[in-house]
């Protein structure tokens, strides 16, 4: 396959995985975006410019995750490699459980889709499979690709995802701490097995969450209850879990976003904001300095890629 364009722009959303009981399966795309531009160079050079989140921290060469994903996608479809000039304006916080690495991977693959002469070779299904291969699990990649809420699963034939309805009254609020936590650290405290009663509880709440998200937001508090991963992570993110506890005690459907330490409140929209606003303000005590409260819409578009004409 040949390259069919030499410049593309990509927009990719932040995502929140798990949503409480939907561990490694459910995810939600949020209207907080990284914007990227990729230009092919006439040389073998790789130039990476980053502003915003991760500037001065992430690699500025072949090791950059967008570059790695783009190259993997080109290899997958048999397209030639080339020198690259990558410009990133990042808004998704890194190491906070908002899908920054999945966004980078999906953005890189989407950029390859825009560059090749046969973009259909990198269908959404192919993008999900490659992103999952690079990420290890599909819960963030699926909503980053499709937008909205998704459920993702693996079969013998590959990784699949399906869209879930989101009620217009659902109003996500991301509460982002100043501190970071690696996914590996968050996963490292999870047990190899859980009690059968907790597994049964989890299955019921995950099923209820699908109904609550799509048709019954009044059920979100019950539907987001979790016994599989959050309490086990309390030792590595005590302030996040304390905030989850405080918000849930006030009737807010709060969960750890992905591997944390961001807290996601699945609030309900009101005329003046959300029904979680007062509870969030009250929950902030002297130990909660440095946190950012980000009311966010649900991103319904998923990753977007556009070819750009030179000139």
Report what the structure shows.
This protein is globular. It contains 9 helices and 12 strands. Strands 1, 2, 3, 4, 5, 6 and 12 form a 7-stranded mixed sheet that branches. The mean pLDDT is 94. The protein has 311 residues and is of the alpha+beta class. Helix 1 (65-76) crosses helix 2 (100-115).
Count the helices. How many? 9
Q: How many strands, what sense, and barrel or not for the largest sheet?
A: 7 strands, mixed
Fraction in helix:
25-40%
Mean pLDDT score: 94
Gap between N and C termini, in Å? 26 Å
Number of DSSP E strands: 12
Show unreliable segments: none
Task: State the secondary-structure class.
Answer: alpha+beta
How much β-strand is present in the residues? 25-35%
What's the quick description here?
The chain has 311 residues and is α+β, with helices and mostly antiparallel strands.
Name the descriptors.
9 helices; 311 residues; alpha+beta
Could you outline the blueprint of secondary structure elements for this entry?
Elements: E1 7-18, E2 22-41, E3 46-52, H1 65-76, E4 83-90, H2 100-115, H3 124-135, H4 141-146, E5 149-155, E6 158-164, E7 170-176, H5 183-188, H6 196-214, H7 220-223, H8 238-249, E8 254-256, E9 263-270, E10 273-274, H9 277-283, E11 292-295, E12 304-307
Helix pairs in contact: 1-2, 2-3
């Amino acid at each position: 396959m040949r390259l069919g364009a030499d410049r593309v722009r990509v927009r990719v959303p932040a995502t929140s995985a798990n949503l409480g009981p939907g561990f490694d399966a459910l995810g939600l795309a949020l209207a907080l975006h990284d914007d990227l531009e990729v230009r092919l160079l006439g040389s073998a050079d790789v130039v990476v410019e980053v502003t915003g989140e991760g500037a001065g921290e992430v690699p500025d060469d072949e090791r950059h995750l967008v570059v790695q994903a783009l190259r993997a996608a080109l290899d997958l479809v048999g397209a030639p490699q080339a020198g690259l000039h990558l410009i990133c304006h990042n808004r998704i916080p890194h190491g906070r459980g908002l899908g920054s690495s999945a966004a980078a991977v999906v953005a890189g693959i989407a950029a390859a889709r825009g560059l090749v002469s046969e973009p259909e070779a990198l269908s959404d299904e192919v993008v999900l499979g490659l992103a999952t291969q690079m990420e290890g699990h599909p819960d963030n990649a699926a909503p980053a690709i499709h937008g909205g809420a998704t459920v993702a699963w693996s079969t013998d034939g590959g990784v699949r995802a399906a869209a879930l309805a989101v009620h217009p009254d659902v109003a996500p609020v991301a509460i982002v701490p100043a501190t970071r936590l690696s996914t590996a650290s968050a996963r490292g405290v999870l047990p190899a097995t859980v009690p059968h009663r907790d597994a049964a509880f989890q299955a019921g709440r995950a099923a209820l969450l699908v109904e609550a998200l799509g048709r019954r937001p009044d059920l979100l508090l019950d539907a987001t209850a979790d016994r599989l991963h959050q309490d086990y992570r309390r030792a590595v993110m005590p302030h996040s879990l304390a905030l989850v506890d405080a918000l849930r005690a006030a009737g807010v459907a709060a969960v750890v976003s992905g591997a944390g330490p961001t807290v996601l409140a699945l609030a309900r929209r009101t005329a003046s904001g959300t029904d979680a606003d007062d509870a969030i303000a009250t929950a902030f005590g002297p130990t909660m300095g440095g946190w950012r409260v980000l009311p966010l819409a649900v991103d319904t578009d998923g990753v977007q890629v556009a070819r750009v004409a030179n000139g």
